[in-house]
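**Fold in tokens:**
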Amino acid sequence: MGGKLITWLQIHVVERLLLKRSFERIYMVMGGHIFFQTLSAAITMDLFSLLNDHQSMTRQQIAQSLHCDEQPIRILLLGCVTLGLLKKKGLFYSNTFLSKQLFIRSSPRNIIDVVRWQSAINYRAMPHFAESIKQNKNLGLDEFPGTETTLYERLAHDKALEKIFQDAMESISRQANEMLANALDTSHWKHLVDVGGGNGTNIITLARRSPHLRASVFDSPSVCEIAKATIAQAGLSDRLGTFSGNCFQDPFPKEADAILFAHFFTIWSEARNRALLRKCYESLPSGGSVIIFNMMQRDSEDGPFSAAMGSPYFLTLATGEGMLYTWGEYVRWMKESGFDQVTTQVLPRDHGLIIGRKH
């Protein structure tokens, strides 16, 4: 009898623990909009930098420093502590290790601009997700002025939003391109073209690692103007430049012997990606390479979280046709486009590098 009671208690405890985790997951899903806005509000008020300056503070001190009444600050702090963004010991609040890395302006790893992009742009579009699935179209684009078919084109009508977007892309690139630069051997290339290269962060990092390398951003005219300024500020205008154009319509630069797509193939459909790879094969000289650097979906199509979180954005807002594809899809597309030497490399934070070489 005693053994059966212990077994029943063990099962009961395990079931309660499992249910607790399940309910907590549901709370995170149901309250996702609130929890994100909690983080966004804390960043907007620069709460994490304030706590970093003072190490720890009481609720009253925080309210006084932020020029707010105490009760709304209490609500904000409750959310931040519950989410693990802050620690509370007695009456005092302080940053967690994660918050020190991600949400303090002085941290080189901060993702503040990414949160601003999510808040100002993505959140406006995502209520259209269900209808976008039904119509297979980026209906969230209706939230932004213009008649163009992609978010990137419409942002040119609003310079403030375009800057928020480009700042976020720079932040993502800055933190990812160190992985790219560490993993990518550029010694055998003379001129690399970064298609959709944004403000030039990628090629600046690569050029600083490889003094022999010339590189260019291939992007829309308005983005190329931003890239030119960034390149000039870095003092690399003698080796780095831009090409304005549409990658689906205009030819790639003839001097390119390496064509990089960094966080780019997720934007487009399989058909468009295949077309770009065929165009790369036809454009590149013998020995030239095409490089895909992306966050990757597992071949088993069951994750990771980054793939599940990113894919609805491409459907609902960006272009209405992209998603995070699997490793196997990229490899197959490259080989079917003619690249006979294809290598893959797994990188941190769900990223991967796939290189196809033309014989």
Notes: Residues 31-102 form a domain with the Arc Repressor Mutant, subunit A fold (CATH 1.10.10.10).
